[in-house]
Specification:
Length: about 260
């Protein structure tokens, strides 16, 4: 008779071999979570715990996004297991899905790139994407994370990232985990400050992208970023820059002062 521990060992080995061959493409949510739990609980059948976690939180993403204290309330989840589950989400946030992308060729690409940066976040995040003259990505930097409906933004930190990476163009992006697809008055105020600051530094803000769990909006695409640019040009009494007809996605401009809250 085969002992239970041998059955579990064979099952784990099969799943590990499947992962090495196909990644997670053939795994169900239960199997993905079970696979993760292998490394927290090495000597026990973790399938019942995977089912219990999904039953409690509703999905794999919600399990990985759950508060540490709430994970510990599940029977069978100890400190080590809860920490490991939180680690998966933290690591995923540091390695964007579209990291191999090297160039932002238009607003559709910008929206897709930003969506993958923040689609799983349950708090508001604010990103800066630094580009060169031909829209090659020089640096993607998360400026800050906030709460479910607010993020604190240091304009000076954004400026530092731009200057450090020698960017000539910039895309900024933030998300609304609530699903709201409206740029708030505070969103527009921050965009204005960023625009004015970049104008003064001879850097172009080419978009401000808003991400929700299911939708993406481009401020450049709907025309409002152009209005923000014109407002800043007039307020700063700067000469108007004539867009190049051969460069359709590089004709806006960028920045602000001190600290803003959104």
């Amino acid at each position: 008779m085969i002992k239970n521990d041998q059955i579990h060992k064979n099952h784990r080995n099969r799943m590990k071999n499947t992962f090495l061959e196909h990644g997670f493409t053939t795994f169900t949510e239960i199997q993905k979570l079970e696979f993760m739990l292998f490394f927290a609980i090495p000597q026990k059948d973790v399938n019942p715990l995977a089912h219990a976690l999904l039953a409690e939180f509703g999905s794999l993403n919600k399990v990985l996004s759950a508060d540490f204290e709430n994970l510990l309330k599940i029977d069978g989840v100890g400190t080590h297991t809860a920490l490991l589950l939180k680690t998966f989400k933290a690591v995923a946030a540091e390695v964007p899905t579209l990291e191999p992308l090297t160039k932002i060729s238009g607003s559709l690409v910008a929206k897709e790139y930003c969506y993958h940066l923040m689609r799983h976040s349950d708090v508001e995040d604010f990103y800066v994407i630094c580009l060169n003259d031909v829209n090659k990505i020089l640096k993607t930097k998360k400026i800050n994370s906030g709460t479910a409906n607010k993020v604190h933004v240091e304009i000076s930190e954004i400026t530092k990232v731009i200057i450090t990476n020698k960017a000539t163009k910039v895309i900024v992006a933030h998300n609304h985990p609530s699903g709201s697809m409206e740029f708030s008055d505070d969103d527009m105020h921050i965009t204005n400050n960023i625009m004015c600051n970049c104008l003064l530094n001879d850097v172009e803000l080419i978009d401000h992208v808003l991400v929700s769990p299911t939708e993406v909006m481009s401020l450049a695409e709907d025309g409002r970023l152009d209005f923000v640019k014109n407002t800043c040009v007039n307020s700063l009494n700067l000469p108007v820059k004539i867009p190049s007809p051969s460069a359709p996605y590089e004709d806006y401009i960028v920045f602000g002062k001190d600290t803003e809250n959104k």
